[in-house]
Design brief:
Layout: H1 2-5, H2 7-25, H3 32-57, H4 65-83, H5 89-112, H6 117-136, H7 148-153, E1 157-162, E2 168-172, H8 174-191, H9 193-203, H10 205-210, H11 215-241, H12 252-262, H13 274-293, H14 298-324
Antiparallel strand pairs: 1-2
Helix pairs in contact: 2-13, 3-8, 3-9, 3-11, 3-12, 3-13, 4-5, 4-6, 4-11, 5-6, 5-11, 8-9, 9-11, 12-13, 12-14, 13-14
Length: 325
Amino acid sequence: MRVLQRSETLIAAVLVTVMLVIGLINPAFWSADNLFSILKSNVIVGIMALGVLLVMLSGGFDVSFPAIAAAAMYLSVKTMVAVGYPGVALPFLGAVAIGILCGAINGFLVWKFRMIPLIVTLGTGAMVRGLLLGVMGTSIVNIDRFPPALIEFARGEVLVSNHADGSQSGLSAMIFIYLALAVTVHFVLRHTMIGRSVYALGGSSEAANRVGISLSKTIFFVYCVAGALAGFAGMLHSSMIWLANPRDFVGTDLEVIAAVVLGGASIFGGRGSVLGTMLGVFMLVMVKNSLIVMKVDTTWQLVVIGSIIVIATAATAWRDRKRLV
């Protein structure tokens, strides 16, 4: 059975096992409040992970997306406040445009100068973060000044659960935006020429070039889309927590990369899927949530996330080497 041999099947089996173990240790895990909270926490990490997946599939690496998300979000919200703009469409488009611009710079440096993607994105991420804090300052846009339109946009809930004390909890409607983006990325990767080019580039750039694939177009595509998704995720994050902090997303790169690798994406490129990434995101968020519920110290949470990165990377590297033999 080919389904049983797929990495997504193994990831799903591990995920179910981990859920059962956590549920036995802490029965509160199965409460509606906790499950809704876990799903809501998947949204921002998941959207960023889709962009990182594209870059990794192409054989690249991107650690600049947290800085891009923070810059796109903060600049858009500050502009909304300054001009008193009452809608949400233009600010989101503005954030996406900023993300595309930053992604294009990454793509240009990687393609034109054949620079190592990790070094490029480390540098551009530091530059974006530094320029944001140096030019715009470090003041936080709190809820008292935060645009009401953004608050209303992310407030919607579905599957509302009523509690005995009269309180309610619901699943954030933003989960459907995440799902729609995931379906779109999956379709592009599996059913378009540019999507096939991404896999081909990650498998072998030399072979991809020989069959007529435009390496520059593919590289620009993955980095621009990754930037666009980061910008969009930044705005969505801001609207969900009702504030804009230019220092947000510090350390998010570890979580997102861990989720993508945990989902079966190869660090060498050419292998990975949207479904696997979504499962990896869910597992990472679930583990982190459970550690918080069990009151595990933040420093030990970093140890767990770091261990997940090492183990998942070792597993994917072993898998890829085994298939090459």
